[in-house]
Specification:
There is one protein chain. Helix content is 50%, strand content 15%. The protein is an alpha+beta fold. The chain is elongated, with a radius of gyration of 34 Å. The relative contact order is 0.10.
Length: 388
Amino acid sequence: MKIVEWFKTNFLEDEKEDKKVDYKFVCQKLASEIMIRELAFNMVVNKISSALSKCKVNVYYNGKRAKDEEWYRWNVQPNVNQSANQFWSKLIYYLYNYNEALVITRGNELYVADSYVKNEDYAFFEHTFTGVTINGYALNKTYRMSEVFYFELNNRNIRNYLNGTLQLYSELINAAYSSYLVANGNKGVLKIDQFAENSEDFTEQFNQLLNEDFKTFFSNANAVLPLYEGFEYSQLDNKGTQSTTRDFKALLDDVISMTANAFNVPSSIANGTVQDTSKAIDEFLTFCIDPLIEMLTDEMNRKSFSPYQIINGHYFKFNTLAIKHIDILDISNAIDKLLSSGFTCINDLRILIGLDPIDEEWANQFFMTKNYAPIEELLNALKGGDET
């Protein structure tokens, strides 16, 4: 049978022939795995950097908030080439990608190092940094630990462990994608009568039909399939076996959720789910942003101020209130309570909800309703009433 011989020639491998590696397939599989990992990682890190970039870095001297050059370079322009948003985005990306980040000062400017070598030769002496490069420019200088801001996220780089776990999910996603293509592909039956099979031109016609004509027919929106005499093709109805991209998306959501959980970001925030957003943001602040900010401020404070200055109220503090959207009408009762109890002034509340302060003396004063009084005064009033 000529059909059997054709299948042996095209599909059955000779046992003595060495198997060749399909490098194109390997490269495509590797590229899809890297793409899936990087997509999930960048989605999660972008959420963190976007949230942090909304936080203003307040500077305090002797316990009082101030705006000076130090405030300006952390909140507006760290260096001549970057805004504060760009600076923090790069810092957070390096921090979560490499588990550490180095910021050097050059004059009054701050730069995130692209690469460097950390030297830990001595346990009880300052560590040093060499081979520092910024935007491709190598700095021929050895930096001491006290001269730089060195931020370290965890004791171990969690992304190395995460990549190994996500590799399994990448294989599942590739399998789901392949199943989707198979289930939704064009399928049909090719009938060949005995006279056509025994013709002299059968092998040439058969190869032409399968290798070229069918490929052109299925890859074009409008096409005509030429058939030789004795060939009959009929399309199979695969409506009952068609697959959707739902399984593929579900696996991709699992990858994003796993990446988010590794970095203490709620899955609903990473996946863009709008349900229970307020609760998710509270968890995001508590387990991700607050620990991150504490690590950043610890390093910023100890490198910017002396112990004496810190004891006397010199410090940095991130304001995280801008991360969570505030509806004035929803918190109007809370605003009234804060004002009437003398807890805060009008300008502090206006800044809290994103409004500009009022340039009036009374806006900085503290008020309290007459409903509040010390317990001693209340007891004295009651005692006086009993005596009368």
